[in-house]
Amino acid sequence: MVAITHLAENCWYAVAPSATLTEQPLELPFAGQDLVLFRDQAGIPWAYSNRCPHRGASLALGSVQQGCIRCPFHGWLFDANGACIEVPADGPGASLPARSHLQGEYQISEHRGFVWMWWGAERADPNLLPELVEFEPEKWQQVTSTFHWDAHFSRVIESNLDNSHAYWVHKSSFASQESPLSIPYELNKGERSFSAKVTFELPLPPALKLLRRLSGKAGKLSATTKFSFIYPNLNIVDTTVSDLLHVVFINASLPQTENKTLCRWVKHSPRKRFNLPGYKDKSIEISRTIFQEDHGVVQSQRPYPVPLNFENESHVNSDLLSIEYRKLLRRLTQLNGSGAQKSPAPIAIERA
């Protein structure tokens, strides 16, 4: 177990896009815990310690067979309730040791395209699962991947809310070259979330100038981006560029240590425009480039977690979303457990 600043208890953490939990087990590092996710025969996700109770091998390197997870080392087989049901080397009917049960079952729910884990000692509250837009698979192309940050999860989340750094950090990838001026946001606040929308103009890339001129459309592109944050660890960036582009990027930041964060993300794009050969690989490459540009700066920030005392740093108008994030984090983290939180003990789960 490790202590991580601002790690709240008794809330749902988005831990993986549903599409990433397939027929194979998925490793889930979280707050110093090494966990594994897998689906049973009904497709329901389960989470346990990633360590086989026999010799400590990683279960994530194993396989899922008829809803049971098999250890890659000696083939021990565990059902969805964590019970060992087979030790191949000892043959059928062999007696099983008392400590053959998987450790640490965690409360898991699948909701709106994500797998969520309840982190805390209290009984999970399904009413705290957030409402997200559903993306119909037949209409939306889906791309998923991961990125590892050498930074505190709160710094990663804040960087995904910060629009004014783009001119300075992302010049070589996507940022406008015309002006670093920030544009006012339309802010909406909820009890456990907030969102802000900004509309701006982009200069036309050379390849599109002639095409737009022939179609009788304006010489610049109108772009709208909506930044959303859902407590405790989900960023959504929804961008539309005129009639050319619509991309929804959803990013879950998983705290690992005080200065390590794993991000699992999914990007949705309309199939009618983006269902092209090589699109997924190119999309992952572009996203990774953008993350790498951010990483060098974000990993240098000190202290590791964002300060919740507003007197410790300077703030300006363009920091609106950063300030809203810190306000929300301070209010809800104090409500759900504040300071450097140690990993809570898992509790037994009753399933229908």
What this model shows, in words?
The protein has 352 residues and is an alpha+beta fold. It folds into 2 domains: 4-128, 3-layer Sandwich (Rieske Iron-sulfur Protein); 140-335, Naphthalene 1,2-dioxygenase Alpha Subunit, Chain A, domain 1. The protein has 6 helices and 19 strands. It has helices spanning 153-161, 166-169, 206-214, 271-274, 279-298, 320-335, and strands at 4-5, 11-17, 26-30, 33-39, 45-49, 63-65, 68-70, 77-78, 84-86, 107-111, 114-119, 140-149, 186-189, 193-203, 220-230, 234-241, 245-257, 260-270, 340-341. A 7-stranded antiparallel sheet has the order 12-18-17-16-15-14-13. It has a 4-stranded antiparallel sheet with strand order 6-7-8-9, with no helix packed on it. The chain has a 3-stranded antiparallel sheet with strand order 2-11-10, with no helix packed on it. Strand 17 and strand 18 form a beta hairpin. The model is unreliable at 338-352 (pLDDT under 50).
What portion of residues belong to β-strands? 25-35%
Write the element-wise H/E pattern from the N-terminal end onward: EEEEEEEEEEEEHHEEHEEEEHHHE
Q: How many helices in DSSP terms?
A: 6
Q: What is the CA–CA distance across the termini?
A: 30 Å
